[in-house]
Amino acid sequence: MGSLPPHVVEDCLGIVQVFSDGSISRSEFVKFPMEVEDDGTALWKDCIYDNQNNLHLRLYKPRSATSSSAPLPVLHFLHGGGFCVGSRTWPNCHSCCLRLASALHALVVAPDYRLAPEHRLPAASDDARASLKWLQHQALMPSAAADEWLREGIDFGRVFVVGDSSGGNLAHHLAVELRPGSPELAPVRVRGYVLMAPFFGGVVRTKSEAEGPPEKYLNLEILDR
To answer: How far is CA 126 from CA 52, 115, 140, 167, 185, in A?
Structure first.
């Protein structure tokens, strides 16, 4: 009598499923409750920043930026998703970054990072750091060798790291590691960190976990797993 086929033991929103034999399935087709909001005031493109792990980031800049404009500050945007879902390509992240680039007149850098359970922490933290090192590498390159959007008109001395949910957790750890002024990233200088509803958890419940309203999707039951 043959063994039973693998069955689902963990299911995260139908996007990630863990099977009884330890295998993992990640869906590439996600039905989103929203669409991309793009009014054409920002441009974007994708770049690879980590060849070994095939990790990409998305660059955004205001369409109105010209060579005679004031240098653009940089917003380094780390998406959320409980460390197990999310991407720079998802409509919520893409729409947010388009709006940030246009409204703040800034260059936005939105990296993907490796996700759990295939890649457990600190893989995501390592990737967040690597994406900032990529920005430093671009700043140090001869102008002709750097990405064309980063050759001129970028103020690498005014970088702000923005993190949403689990991205806020990553931003926190970057702040602790890089210290004020991020001296090891020179000439890139991180001037500040913005944590948007940062995701922190541990053995003891945080106040928001213990007293906050129940979540429909990334609820405590899923996050505890």
So the answer is: 13, 12, 21, 13, 15
Does a structural domain hold residue 28?
no
**SS3 of 112, please?**
coil
Is 224 within a domain? Answer: no
Residue 54, domain CATH: 3.40.50.1820
Structural domain total, the chain: 1
CA Rg value for the chain: 19
Order across the sheet with 55-62: list the strands. Answer: 42-50, 55-62, 107-111, 72-78, 154-164, 190-196
| Sheet architecture: strand order including 16-19 | 8-12, 16-19, 24-26
Beta bridge partners of 121: none
Residue-level pLDDT, tens digit, the chain, 225 residues: 457 788 988 888 788 889 988 899 998 888 888 899 999 999 999 999 999 999 999 999 999 987 778 999 999 999 999 899 999 999 999 999 999 999 999 999 999 999 999 999 999 999 999 999 999 999 999 988 999 999 999 999 999 999 999 999 999 999 999 999 999 999 999 999 999 989 887 778 878 777 878 776 667 776 666
Whether 133 is covered by a domain: the verdict is: yes
Domain span at residue 65 reads 34-212
Question: Is residue 161 situated within a structural domain?
Answer: yes
Residue with tokens 């792990």: 53
Residues 6 or more apart from 52 whose CB is under 8 A from it?
A: none
Nearest to 60 by CA among 124, 136, 131, 111: 111
